[in-house]
Design brief:
Layout (H helix, E strand, L loop, with lengths): L5 H19 L7 H8 L3 H13 L3 E4 L4 E4 L1 H11 L4 H16 L2 E8 L2 E8 L15 E3 L4 H7 L4 H11 L11 H14 L2 E4 L6 E9 L5 E10 L7 H19 L1
Antiparallel strand pairs: 1-2, 3-4, 3-8, 4-5, 6-7, 7-8
Helix pairs in contact: 1-3, 5-9
Pfam family, one: IclR_C
Organism: Ancylobacter novellus (strain ATCC 8093 / DSM 506 / JCM 20403 / CCM 1077 / IAM 12100 / NBRC 12443 / NCIMB 10456) (Starkeya novella)
InterPro entries: GAF-like_dom_sf, HTH_MetabolicPath_Reg, Tscrpt_reg_IclR_C, Tscrpt_reg_IclR_N, WH-like_DNA-bd_sf, WH_DNA-bd_sf
Amino acid sequence: MAAPTASGSQLLDRAALLLDLIADGTSEGATLKELVERSGLNTATCHRILNTLVGHRLLARDDKRKRYRLGAKMFIYGARAARGPGLISRCEMSLSRLRKKTGETTHLMARHNHDSLCLDRRDGECVVQTLTGSIGGSVPLGAGPGSIAMLAFLDREEQEFILRANEPRFAAFRDLAADKVWRLIEETRARGHAVDIGELIPGIAGVAMPILDETGVPVASLGFTFLCAKIVPGLVENYAALLRAEIDLIERRS
């Protein structure tokens, strides 16, 4: 097979950029004007690539509102990937065991560019509000214990790069700013797990721990979300110990 031409590679990069911009935006999608401004592409090029992606059902176009959003094929690909022999399948039993032992909501998060994405979860006995909402939901890295657990164990240069990119997005979260994220990173590295006690969502607590690959780089996190009212002395530490035991099993399977 012939190597892709430079123009073909550039076109693929631009298409991927537009997909990322739409995926990282709101559920309402984005207009052509918004995508031109955010991508730096000229209008004609952006419009041509968008039309191609629509033709392949990677994007859907709302002609009435003149907005683009992710298409049906993207969700099909996501579902197929989730069934594969990867991270989700390695963590399924751990999520279920943790939920059964504690009755709490458990979740598996993974890094996607500058975001923390919910790959899987088990709902607890008590319905609790979570930052990501459901499987497939995401938050910027730095928001919530599931994302802090991963961010804290990246190298300093990468942490700085991510925080510079995400700082404008922190304003959407309660009392969150870059200096606070740096403090959470230091605390998480010191104790080995991330904790939030009602700071981002009043009345809701969370604890999470990173899952590392064979090189020691965090690829995901496992965590609990629960009511602050349930907290008694030693509970957070107990939940962290349960996470540690399951993550040891997961990392041995990798």
